[in-house]
Amino acid sequence: MKKRIKNKILLLLTGILVLLTPMTAFAESSSNYSMGSGAEEYKVAPVAYEVDKVYHAVDIEGVESLDGLASMFVKGDSVYVATSSAILILDLDFTLKETLAEYTDLDGKTAQISGPDGLFVTDSGLLYVCEPTKEHVLVFDSSLKLVQSFGKPEGLDVSVKYQPSQIIVDSLNRMYIIASNIYEGILEVSSDNKFQRYFGTTTVSVSPIEIFFRAIASEAQLSRQALLLPTEYSSMTVNGRGFVYTTIRSRDVETPVRLLNVNGDDIMPKNWQDNPPSGDENYANSGQYGGKSSLSYIDCNEYGMYMVLDTIQNRIFTYDSSSNVLFVFGGRGDKDGCFRNPVSIRWMGESNKVLVADRLSQSITVMKPTNYAAALFEAAKLEAEGERDAAVAYWQKALDMNYNCNVAKDAIGRVRYWNGDYKGSQEMLGQILRNDYYSMAFEKTREQMVRTYAPAAVVVLVVLIVAVKLLKRVRRSKKGGNGNAA
Amino acid sequence: MQLSSVSLKDFRRRFVDEVFRFPLYVITNPFKAFSDIKYEKKGSVPACFLFMFLIMILNVMKSSYTGTVFLEKDPRFVNIWVLMAGALIQTVLLVVANWSVTVLIDGSGSLKEIFMVAMYAQYPNMWLSGLYIVLSHVLSLDEKALLNFCSVFGIVCIVFYAFIGLVSVHGFGFFKGIASVLLTIVALVIIIFVLLMLVSMSGELVTFIKTIYNEIVLHYF
Predict the structure, then answer these.
(1) Domain A370-477 in the same topology as domain A48-368
(2) How far apart are CA A169 and CA A174, in angstroms?
(3) pLDDT tens, B10-33?
(4) Could you tell me which residues come within 8 angstroms of residue A312 by beta carbon, excluding any fewer than 6 positions away?
(5) pTM of this prediction?
(6) Among A43, A103, B26, B39, which is least packed by CB within 10 angstroms?
(7) Cβ neighbour number for residue A56 with a 10 Å cutoff
(8) Architecture of the CATH domain A48-368
(9) Which residues of B touch A (CB under 8 A)?
(10) Which of B69, B71, B139 should we substitute to test contact with A (largest number of A Cβ atoms within 10 Å)?
(11) What is the ipTM of this complex?
(12) Domain spanning A370-477: which CATH class is it, in words?
């Protein structure tokens, strides 16, 4: 009997212990978060992207190594990958189609591809390859025969070595080239390799205090100070309409993500909270990985959305066309779905899968969107196409999965306003403090309220005034009566 | 019974006098009223403490009960203790800074008088803050000018009355008054600097002692 009770107590205690132990068995932790209405309020959001497959060299037949991974490019159903000694051309399922390691140069000699970086494929199938170490840009036709080799552009007057690292080509075959150590801007080079101008030039802003201190500094002091250089672009990509998205690696600039028009002006919109897209504003206050993001790569899709790669936290931020963060994924680490030294990200067409090349672990990760990200994509796409009402269903879907989804609240609130549901609009926009639209909806509800209650209020006021006057008269006459009697 | 009702009535009369009537007198006749504070011992310290408390409360209310149209920060994430301490520290620092300066340049005001001046000078702003909160619930973003007027006019009032008050309480002329205000700002900067230094130094001292403690513990035990 005693033993039985003892056993029961033991069982009970075990049960309590099990219940008290925190459940740590997460299938996959989320690196996604929303940034909230204030800059410091981070809220955990559902996982946006999950790993589809991680490809190392052994996983791709016919590939010996993925050493020295650099840029990638996706065109149609081909993926172009730059590795240290070859350009791999894969199809979307990662079976090797062709390898470009050797080519016959224009003199008829055999040459090796070495240390290629930026790749670009035009609509007509020409493959542009930047080789920074060899100081030239190679152009191959669709059968991978060398067509042209562009050295230093004619008329480019710089003293540093010409090292093209990224390239895009427009419909007139003009090349836009980012070359390392050329700080003036992106090089715009004509199709016959003549330097045209610096594109997207950035000016250095120098404060009066800096000018003062530089004026009084001695030569020796000046030589120890950092040079005041304009910002250097780290990557660029072009959308279907010829607008160029660029990133700047420097953490000191206010607008590290830029959208350049034909003139090279930055036309990137700020979001409604008046913040330019810039990755993390300040993820952690201190430490090696604290502070602002440093953005090193960008890719865009045809609906105005773009992804930027942050090399501080190794995260990928996805923005919609109004510069709102849709979601964040990736992270620093060794497990699948985290990266050690990501160098390039590419969107894989309509499937919205994303390729991430990791140079240190020599792998290419294919990430696929979860239902949450898919809903947001669909919604942002419909919004960009002008189908606001149709987008609401998808925004709502995303909101059902994540009640902290501010982009969805914002979009739904605005649509409700345009559809005349002012109360509902206020309810949504009040939560995220979107004051401009909230105020417009508020004006409407205020007007409705005044319309309904104003007549009644006037009547009540008149009645009150009359009543008070009557009461006073009655009192006075009563007092007078008393006075008379006394 | 009779006694308590009398004292209650008395209290009510005193309350109305000190919280409404005298401050109104200060607003309408600032020169006269502030010299009354000094020479006739008018004005009440308990009322001033009440104002201080109300200012702290209003500071919190302004960030949490303002209409959604004009909210800039989500009230759920507002730290009310920080806001209250902010209002308190602001006043205390200004009063102390002014006192420490005017003591040196022959101002005749006492710490109590300076504190009372600071409180009565903020009296109009208290009402304007209240008005701000009420109006923010009925105005839209296009009519923001009215609210801006409330806050700007409040600050103008504070500066205006505080200056008159300080000049009368210390017995300064106009230019000496201006000079004392400028010196007060300098003193304020010095006080803040010393305070910050004290905080960081004490932090370092704590780390130092902790390090020694750790060394001893790890070495001998």
Answers:
(1) no
(2) 6
(3) 889 999 999 999 999 999 999 999
(4) A280, A283, A289, A291, A292, A293, A294
(5) 0.80
(6) B39
(7) 14
(8) 6 Propeller (2.120)
(9) 68-74, 77, 138, 140-142
(10) B69
(11) 0.79
(12) mainly alpha
